[in-house]
């Protein structure tokens, strides 16, 4: 589902219609009980309905028309709150339905052996278990989440990402994961299934969308506690008003005690119905907004935590720099020709399927016309890259050729009793200082030279980091490069700090260190070697293009695989909190005006002197009370768009932000109801309704 | 308002604020066990107390143990006061041979003094023996104040510690609060007060001949006690001449000093600090008034120092001070402008060189308008509750302010310790709402405020209004409650509301006009006082425990500063909004109606 269709659903008559029906269905006590503030309104509405029936039988304290008007608007208040929630859910439900349409039962070609040419049997996709191996050919749907173990193919992932351009999926490297429900367009893939039925990514997404409203985030729980406390205070303030008013009537010898209808009206006006009615809509809409941005969060908690991030760790490659590094030069040491170096480098890279490895092969071919050799026939054994040794290479015809980071090669040479020439350090440093990555090539205990891998920093990334800094987030670049290279790129990209020569252990240690200081750490990553760090981070955004391991370790997946998306995730997290905070303030500030409307009206017969407080000069006690109730109900409707869209976040610093929001929602909340209640009163009088 | 009045207020506030830093830093050092002469000097004595009571001062407590120690200690204290009152007739130091106190009154007083409320349903000189006053009430004046301070210090430790499960040792905090802070200050103040003429003696009440004899007529009673009537049916009168008077005395100065310093407020004599032997001179009045707010103000600085950022303490002190000053400038002019009904009677209410003018009903001429109204605001801002004028006789607005100050939860300075920890609860709520408004999980002093803290803070803010409103409703519903109300109309309601506001916020001052020494009010107010003290102290300790277990979030550019004018405004806004929204309906039916009726009555003429 793409952005446009989600946005369109806001004004979708289908969703609106469903939401209307849903608002009435939510009138069941079980549904209402979940929202304590609105439950009070619900009970109040029932009470006034009863009072109206009594009044019709001539046992009312107020005229039946008045009680009916109040009752209808009280039920309206409940329905409006239901509607807000229903419409937010409607958008998510549309998304869930869309996702589910991708999740049909797909016939799978289950291979007997994990080989392309093995025999296969046709089984139902839903019967596949973790560890099964399937063949997917052009035109087939991917039957479940899995890891490509053989083959290269173009895959249409639009069902999940909304992106129509096909993506390449291949074995090895960071583009080896496939998602159930996507379709192979060309060639074939052999895939090992990694998820049992019901645990697949799509299942998690659907569950997330459908359950968004049921999981309260920690801040939401804390806010609910505050709202319940306020409701209790107001409940006490209104309930005690009844004996107070009996005493007042007895002692002043005039007037009538406050009626139950007016008490209920006062109570509903005072308790924070505005925020109470919109609270769950804000949460559901927040998750919905994340989806519009093509980010799937596994919980609302993760979205909220995103708003609190202090430190952001970013993988350099693909995040800060454009895609992959390319070999750009061979720099041989004295006594070795460049040609010899290129030859050794190409041999060492033959089995290296990473784009960097390929670029070495290509460069050697371009410069010296070396053709790819059939390494198998030469009896070569390849040493694959591992995160621990941080080098790869080949053993061929008695030669031990290795390439890797300078210190990895040095320890390799020293292990074998060789000596790493110190003057060579300078060559490495020069390359690094240019912001390129030096890849050292060695044969046995002898260093042959350096392959220069060039890095290109993405355009516009510096501004994005500046934005994060304004939000109060420290950015740290993580790279396997040496310190000098890292420093050069860090300076160019404008990150605050960097971690060079990072091993998975070093990343994990860095995250733990920040967490121990009390900071909240976010991390974006895509590779399998990022998985432990992603699991440790408080907010972990995995790229959809990344490996299955990374996606499982993260608590959010970015379908666009755009690492700077975190800025938008942070904004959404903050927006959710801000919208709740602002509406709470607004809701409470509104009470001042409501007191001025209702108190003089409620005691008009007992203490006429209190009419001094009727500063809005509302026409009659009945119109005053009704106007306050109507305003209280309509403000919920008026604020639905704000609750769904969220308050705009500007990175201007905590104090300025607070000041701005206090002015708008605090001071605004004091003033708006005076105008609103007066206007409603005028309309009621004009229409001759009171 | 006169310029003289302004000058007195400014002088008072200036002295108060100037003393906050030195005393505050002294107290911080005491609690952090840094050497400040006296705690080294008396160290052997302190150690001896621990040895005697079997306390290991090094062993700190979890919040639950701390709370249990606090509750048990307070329970024993309350029982001791109850016992002393119930047996005082058979105990020594009772020169007037006062009888044992009735059980309901004894319960009320025991609770009242243990909870630092010091509501007095009784009259001191006609009820309590010297022994009860000294051993029961004065001791509670010290330890109930120290209890509040200990709770506060435990809460502060919650903020300063990281990933800890202990928040200090209750016995050590109690001992140090009493020994190094309350005792020395009280000793000095008591001596100065004696110098001003406050009485301090074990002698029985003195009978003195009047210099100016008083003559009046009173109805003549027959043998059966019924007034005799003459032939025309009018009561028969006889002339009476009073030549001598019994003057109540006692060990007052030692109790008055701690009563003011510990925000207790329970007077030695019935009329409290309006009594010439309890508060004889303008100087004694100034010192007693200063003592009310001295420790609460200084504790703000202590708080700042202990959390390692004095600006945090100043911010809270600023919020308290702004609210106090604003309300002083409501009450003093209200009293100074007088009562229009008196003008109609031809009473001169214009301030002049001879008299202070204004509404002098129920006020002492030696204090005048400013010092009576200022005292009323100060004593209700703090949960002191001592009075030097009768609040019942204030103008409606003049009486509304003290009532509302109590209803705000006794956080505008408030009780020693309890005021600040109450204010910190409001700060937690303010921080929570503002944290949401800037899109960040709220944190205060580096501690994240989450659901548990919100729950506990909500309880502490919720309990007093529930007690006050619920209690008042009960009192005006039941015949037994209504029968104690002397004044008709809205004023009668104000009197009940004031009494419950006082007990429900542990203030202890009385509006008067309500006959509260009845089994009904003694029990109702006693229960209200109990809930309002311990249902607040325990959640506060729970927060202390929860906060101590958390790590400290370092300050970053996204952190909301809590020492800025903006935060001060926000904190004031939170306190006032909660206080106003909760009590507007009740106040509207009491003092607001009174005020409007007073104006209306004048307009009608």
UniProtKB/TrEMBL annotation, chain A:
UniProt-listed Enzyme Commission number(s): 7.2.2.6
First-listed, main subcellular location of the protein, grouped into a coarse class: membrane
Membrane topology, from the record: Multi-pass membrane protein
SUPFAM superfamilies on file: Calcium ATPase, transduction domain A, Calcium ATPase, transmembrane domain M, HAD-like
Enzyme class: translocase
Top-level taxon of origin: Bacteria
Reactions the enzyme catalyzes: K(+)(out) + ATP + H2O = K(+)(in) + ADP + phosphate + H(+)
InterPro entries: ATPase_P-typ_cyto_dom_N, ATPase_P-typ_P_site, ATPase_P-typ_TM_dom_sf, ATPase_P-typ_transduc_dom_A_sf, ATPase_P-type_domA, HAD-like_sf, HAD_sf, P-type_ATPase_bsu_IA
Domain P-type ATPase A, residue spans: 116-210
GO-annotated cellular components: plasma membrane
Segments crossing the lipid bilayer: 35-54, 66-84, 221-246, 258-284, 592-610, 622-642, 662-689
Sites where the protein binds ATP: 352, 356, 385-392, 403
Keyword Translocase: yes
GO molecular function: ATP binding; ATP hydrolysis activity; magnesium ion binding; P-type potassium transmembrane transporter activity
Pfam families: E1-E2_ATPase (PF00122), Hydrolase (PF00702)
Positions of the catalytic residues: 315 (4-aspartylphosphate intermediate)
Binding site for Mg(2+): 526, 530
UniProt entry keywords in alphabetical sequence: ATP-binding, Cell membrane, Ion transport, Magnesium, Membrane, Metal-binding, Nucleotide-binding, Phosphoprotein, Potassium, Potassium transport, Translocase, Transmembrane, Transmembrane helix, Transport
Subcellular location(s) per record: Cell membrane
Self-association state and partner proteins as the record states: The system is composed of three essential subunits: KdpA, KdpB and KdpC.
Function: Part of the high-affinity ATP-driven potassium transport (or Kdp) system, which catalyzes the hydrolysis of ATP coupled with the electrogenic transport of potassium into the cytoplasm. This subunit is responsible for energy coupling to the transport system and for the release of the potassium ions to the cytoplasm.
Family per record: Belongs to the cation transport ATPase (P-type) (TC 3.A.3) family. Type IA subfamily.
NCBIfam families found in the cross-reference section: ATPase_P-type, kdpB
Protein name: Potassium-transporting ATPase ATP-binding subunit
Organism per entry: Methylovulum psychrotolerans
Higher taxonomy: Bacteria, Pseudomonadati, Pseudomonadota, Gammaproteobacteria, Methylococcales
From TrEMBL, chain B:
GO cellular component entries: plasma membrane
Chain coiled-coil ranges: none
Annotated transmembrane regions: 6-24, 66-87, 139-159, 179-199, 286-307, 314-334, 411-436, 457-478, 534-553, 565-589
Keyword Signal in annotation: no
Pfam families given in the database record: KdpA
Keywords: Cell membrane, Ion transport, Membrane, Potassium, Potassium transport, Transmembrane, Transmembrane helix, Transport
Main location: membrane
Family according to the record: Belongs to the KdpA family.
Functional note: Part of the high-affinity ATP-driven potassium transport (or Kdp) system, which catalyzes the hydrolysis of ATP coupled with the electrogenic transport of potassium into the cytoplasm. This subunit binds the extracellular potassium ions and delivers the ions to the membrane domain of KdpB through an intramembrane tunnel.
SUBUNIT field: The system is composed of three essential subunits: KdpA, KdpB and KdpC.
Record HAMAP family: KdpA
Name listed for the protein in its UniProt record: Potassium-transporting ATPase potassium-binding subunit
Lineage: Bacteria, Pseudomonadati, Pseudomonadota, Gammaproteobacteria, Methylococcales
């Amino acid at each position: 589902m793409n952005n446009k269709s989600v946005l369109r659903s806001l004004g979708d008559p289908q969703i609106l219609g469903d939401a209307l029906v849903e608002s009435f269905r939510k009138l069941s006590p079980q549904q209402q009980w979940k929202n304590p503030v609105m439950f009070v309104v619900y009970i109040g509405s029932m009470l006034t309905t009863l009072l109206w029936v009594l009044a019709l039988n001539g046992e009312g304290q107020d005229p039946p028309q008045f009680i009916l008007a109040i009752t209808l608007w009280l039920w309206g208040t409940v329905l409006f709150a239901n509607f807000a929630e229903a419409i937010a859910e409607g958008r998510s439900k549309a998304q869930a339905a869309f996702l589910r349409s991708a999740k049909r039962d797909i016939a799978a070609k289950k291979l007997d052996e994990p080989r392309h040419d093995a025999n296969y049997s046709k089984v139902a996709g839903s019967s596949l278990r973790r560890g099964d191996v399937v063949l997917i050919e052009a035109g087939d749907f991917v039957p479940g989440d899995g890891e490509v173990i053989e083959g290269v193919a173009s895959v249409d992932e639009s069902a999940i990402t909304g992106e129509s351009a096909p993506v390449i999926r291949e074995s090895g490297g960071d583009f080896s994961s496939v998602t159930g429900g996507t379709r192979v367009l060309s060639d074939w893939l052999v895939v090992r299934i990694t998820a049992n039925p019901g645990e697949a990514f799509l299942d998690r997404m659907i569950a997330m969308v459908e359950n968004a409203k049921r999981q309260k985030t920690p801040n939401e729980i804390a806010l609910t506690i505050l709202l319940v406390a306020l409701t209790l205070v107001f409940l006490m303030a209104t309930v005690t008003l009844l004996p107070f008013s009996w005493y007042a009537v007895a002692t002043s010898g005039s007037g009538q005690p406050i009626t139950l209808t007016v008490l209920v009206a006062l109570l509903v006006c005072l308790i924070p119905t505005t925020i109470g009615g919109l609270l769950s809509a804000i949460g559901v809409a927040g998750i919905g907004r994340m989806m519009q941005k093509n980010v799937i969060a596994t919980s609302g908690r993760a979205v909220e935590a995103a708003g609190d991030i202090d430190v952001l760790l970013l993988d350099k490659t693909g995040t800060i720099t454009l895609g992959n590094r390319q070999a750009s030069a061979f720099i041989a040491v004295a006594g070795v020709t460049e040609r010899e170096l290129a030859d050794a480098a190409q041999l060492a890279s033959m089995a290296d399927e990473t784009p960097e490895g390929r670029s070495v092969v290509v460069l050697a071919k371009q410069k010296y016309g070396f053709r790819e050799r059939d390494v198998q026939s030469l009896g070569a054994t390849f040493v694959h890259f591992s995160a621990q040794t941080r080098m790869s290479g080949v053993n061929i015809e008695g030669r031990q050729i290795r390439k890797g980071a300078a210190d990895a090669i040095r320890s390799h040479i020293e292990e074998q009793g060789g000596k790493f020439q110190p003057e060579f350090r300078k060559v490495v440093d020069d390359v690094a200082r240019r912001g390129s990555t030096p890849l050292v090539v060695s044969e046995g205990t002898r260093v042959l030279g350096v392959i220069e891998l060039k890095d290109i920093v993405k355009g516009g990334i510096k501004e994005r980091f500046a934005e994060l800094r304004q939000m109060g987030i420290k950015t740290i670049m993580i790279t396997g490069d040496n310190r000098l290279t890292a420093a050069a790129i860090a300076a160019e990209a404008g990150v605050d700090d960097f971690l060079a020569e990072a091993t998975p252990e070093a990343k994990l240690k860095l995250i733990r260190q920040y967490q121990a200081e009390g900071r909240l750490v976010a991390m974006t990553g895509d590779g399998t070697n990022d998985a432990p760090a992603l699991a440790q981070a408080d907010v972990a955004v995995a790229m959809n293009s990344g490996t299955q391991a990374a996606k499982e370790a993260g608590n959010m997946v970015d379908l666009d695989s755009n690492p700077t998306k975190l800025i938008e995730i942070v904004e959404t997290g903050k927006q959710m909190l801000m919208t709740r905070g602002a509406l709470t303030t607004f809701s409470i500030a509104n009470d001042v005006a409501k007191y001025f409307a209702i108190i003089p009206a409620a005691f008009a017969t007992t203490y006429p002197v209190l009419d001094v407080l009727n500063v809005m000069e509302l026409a009659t006690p009945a119109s005053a009370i009704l106007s306050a109730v109507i305003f209280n109900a309509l403000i919920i409707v008026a604020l639905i768009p704000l609750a769904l869209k969220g308050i705009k976040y500007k990175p201007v610093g905590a104090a300025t932000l607070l000041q701005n929001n206090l002015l708008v929602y605090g001071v605004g909340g004091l003033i708006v109801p005076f105008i609103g209640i007066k206007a409603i009163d005028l309309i009621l009088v004009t229409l001759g309704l009171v | 308002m006169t310029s003289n009045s302004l000058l007195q207020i400014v002088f008072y506030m200036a002295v108060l604020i100037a003393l906050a830093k030195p005393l505050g830093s002294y107290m911080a050092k005491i609690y952090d066990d840094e050497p400040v002469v006296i705690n080294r000097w008396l160290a052997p004595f302190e150690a001896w107390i621990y040895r005697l009571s079997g306390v290991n001062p090094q062993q700190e407590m979890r919040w639950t143990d701390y709370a249990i120690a606090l509750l048990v200690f307070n329970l024993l204290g309350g029982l001791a006061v109850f016992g002393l009152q119930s047996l005082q007739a058979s105990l020594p130091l009772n020169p007037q041979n006062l009888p044992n106190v009735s059980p309901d009154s004894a319960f009320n007083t025991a609770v009242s003094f243990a909870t630092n409320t010091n509501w007095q349903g009784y009259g001191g000189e006609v009820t309590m023996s010297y022994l009860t006053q000294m051993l029961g009430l004065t001791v509670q004046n010290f330890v109930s104040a120290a209890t509040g301070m200990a709770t506060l210090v435990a809460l502060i430790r919650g903020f300063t510690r990281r990933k800890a499960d202990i928040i200090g040792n209750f016995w050590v905090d109690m001992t140090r609060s009493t020994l190094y802070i309350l005792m020395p200050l009280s000793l000095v103040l008591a001596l100065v007060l004696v110098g001003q003429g406050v009485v301090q003696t074990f002698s029985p009440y003195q009978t003195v001949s009047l210099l100016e004899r008083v003559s009046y007529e009173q109805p003549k009673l027959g043998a059966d006690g019924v007034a005799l009537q003459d032939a025309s049916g009018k009561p028969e009168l006889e002339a009476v001449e009073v030549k001598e008077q019994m003057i109540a005395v006692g060990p007052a100065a030692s109790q008055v000093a701690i009563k003011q310093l510990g925000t207790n407020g329970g007077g030695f004599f019935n009329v409290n600090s309006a009594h010439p032997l309890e508060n004889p001179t303008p100087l004694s009045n100034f010192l007693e008034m200063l003592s009310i707010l001295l420790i609460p103000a200084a504790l703000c600085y202590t708080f700042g120092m202990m959390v390692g950022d004095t600006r945090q303490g100043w911010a809270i002190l600023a919020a308290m001070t702004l609210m106090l000053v604003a309300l002083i400038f409501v009450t003093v002019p209200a009293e100074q402008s007088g009562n229009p009904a008196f003008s109609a009677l031809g009473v001169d209410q214009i301030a002049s060189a001879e008299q202070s003018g204004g509404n002098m009903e129920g006020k002492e001429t030696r204090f005048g308008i400013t010092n009576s109204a200022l005292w009323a605001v100060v004593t209700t801002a703090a949960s002191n509750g001592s009075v030097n004028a009768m609040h019942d006789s204030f103008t409606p607005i003049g009486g509304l302010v003290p009532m509302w100050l109590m209803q705000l939860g006794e956080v505008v300075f408030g009780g020693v310790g309890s005021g600040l920890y109450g204010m910190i609860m409001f700060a937690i709520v303010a921080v929570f709402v503002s944290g949401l408004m800037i899109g960040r999980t709220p944190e205060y002093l580096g501690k994240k405020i989450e659901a548990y803290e919100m729950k506990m803070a909500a309880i502490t803010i919720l309990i007093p209004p529930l007690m006050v409103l619920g209690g008042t409703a009960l009192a005006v519903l039941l015949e037994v409650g209504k029968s104690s109300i002397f004044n008709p109309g809205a004023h009668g309601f104000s009197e009940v509301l004031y009494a419950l506001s006082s007990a429900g916020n542990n203030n202890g001052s009385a509006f008067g006009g309500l006959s509260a020494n009845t089994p009904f009010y003694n029990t109702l107010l006693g229960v209200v006082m109990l809930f309002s003290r311990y249902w607040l102290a325990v959640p506060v300790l729970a927060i202390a425990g929860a906060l101590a277990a958390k790590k400290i979030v370092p300050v970053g550019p996204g952190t909301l500063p809590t020492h800025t004018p903006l935060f001060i405004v926000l904190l004031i806004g939170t306190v006032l909004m909660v206080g106003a929204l909760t009590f507007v309906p009740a106040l509207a039916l009491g003092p607001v109606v009174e005020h409007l009726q007073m104006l209306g009555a004048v307009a009608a003429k």
